[in-house]
Design goal:
Shape: elongated
Order of helices and strands: HHH
Helix content: 40-55%
Number of helices: 3
Number of strands: 0
Strand content: under 5%
Structural class: mainly alpha
Distance between the termini: 64 Å
Radius of gyration: 25 Å
């Protein structure tokens, strides 16, 4: 039983960037800046959440922040 040597893998993406090209390419958001948070929920939950926010005159993001803050306090995490 003969074993064949696998052929070398060709690099089709080109050479990676040099060290100088990648220095400083990671940008961190400023503290307090806004960022998107995307996830799926049931249609019923979405409707109830929107109604709850509107009922109390809150933006949905503010309702989520307040809910997370209370949850964090309950679980001893301390909201950031």
């Amino acid at each position: 039983m003969a074993t064949s040597v696998p052929s070398p893998i060709r690099n089709t993406k080109g050479e990676p960037p040099g060290r100088e090209e990648t220095r400083g390419n990671i940008q961190k958001p400023e503290l307090g800046s806004m960022a998107a948070l995307n996830f799926r929920v049931s249609a019923e939950f979405k409707k109830d959440f929107k109604i709850a926010a509107a009922t109390f005159g809150l933006k949905q993001s503010e309702l989520l922040r307040q809910a997370f803050e209370l949850w964090s306090q309950r679980h001893g995490l301390g909201a950031s």
